[in-house]
Hints:
6 strands, Alpha-Beta Plaits, two-stranded antiparallel ribbon, alpha+beta, 2 helices
Amino acid sequence: xxxxxxxxxxxxxxxxxxxxxxxxxxxxxxxxxxxxxxxxxxxxxxxxxxxxxxxxxxxxxxxxxxxxxxxxxxxxxxxxxxxxxxxxxxxxxxxxxxxxxxxxxxxxxxxx
Length: 112
């Protein structure tokens, strides 16, 4: 099993959610986050004063998936979240050792 974390632009969330649903993703966790990447913050002007916005609003999606679904999920997120502009986001994939469904006690892939 793998954990797929995607940091995307907030306005792309609905498109990504729809694309994930089409490939069979049944659950995910979505969190509003702030951060910056290689480009840093962006300069803005407010009432004549320039200042730097250090943290850009983003959305983080977390999905636990069976190994055979990972490529499809990555492809769905990539295509739906892409605008072609700076700040489209990142996808991280990490191994998951164990999953336990609290309600039933199921473990492993049965709990996903």
